[in-house]
Amino acid sequence: MKLATFSKGAGHRLGVVLSEEQLLDVELAERAIDGFLPGQPVGSMLEYLAAGDASHQRLQRLVEAARQQPQVLADACVDTASVRLEAPIPRPGKIICVGHNYREHILEMKREIPEYPVLFAKFAHTVRGSGDVIPLPPVTQKLDYEAEFAFVIGRTAKDVPPEEALRYVGGYTIANDVSARDLQRRTIQWMQGKNLDGSLPLGPYLVTPDEVPNPHDLDVTLTVNGDVRQRANTGTLVFNVNFLVAYISQILTLEPGDVILTGTPGGVGDAMNPPQYLKDGDVVEITIDKLGTLTNRVQAV
């Protein structure tokens, strides 16, 4: 399934993507189907993840039941054009990013292949959805894009063996690790260059693992105003999803809703000759196989 967090008026709602044009509002569908399964309704993406396999099966049955009742579809479906798509996880508990994880990007940044993953954090205030603007504040003159394949933890994970790691993934999504290169290089720590307001578009959906049987064979493409800047395949990750779940869970406990970004491929604007940084009005699109397209426009603030 493809799941979306959306808003129409106040509050966030959970939807199942039926097509590019329609979402099934989970709460409305549960109310509309008489005698639907007893149990705890799934009201948000975090509730979905926390409930594990039971919630996945519940939503599958909900969609099946709704498709068999045209009136339910009429009452519980919403047009995607009439709502705002939020980030799938609007306020992640932890956002863990991996730097230097594609060989071509490591080489273009003139670094060596790392022995261990380079980890850093972004915070929840950076998160935005597909369609939201990427703010370009006056504090930076070197705002850059980074297309990233991201996964979301679905079960509490501690000291997970690599061969079991994918069982702890609740879904996959697309991220843009927007980076202020001038701020990033002010010190040896990257935090200030990685945590500008609105510098982490996520989405448009959370795609469940049953639709992504092999997360290590997905094409990743980023364009700026239609021009291809980044193109790679997740099969060339230095540290793959299995390794990252196992490695990070040795250091800290991963919890449902935590988001992990796996790194960016070569082609960032900072490494071009001459460098090509984001400017007011630029449209950045990231497409990843099976996950959809994340679209955001840059806006000077």
CATH first level of the largest domain:
Alpha Beta
Mean pLDDT: 94
> Gap between N and C termini, in Å?
37 Å
Low-pLDDT runs of 5+ residues are none
Alpha-carbon Rg, integer = 19 Å
Helix content: 10-25%
| CATH topology tier name of the largest domain | Fumarylacetoacetate hydrolase, domain 2
**Can you identify the CATH superfamily of the largest domain?**
Fumarylacetoacetase-like, C-terminal domain
Number of domains: 2
> What's the helix count?
8
- Could you give the count of β-strands? 19
N-to-C series of helices and strands: EEEHHHHEEEHEEEEEEEHHEEEHEEE
Which second-level CATH architecture of the largest domain applies? Alpha-Beta Complex
Shape: globular
Structural class: alpha+beta
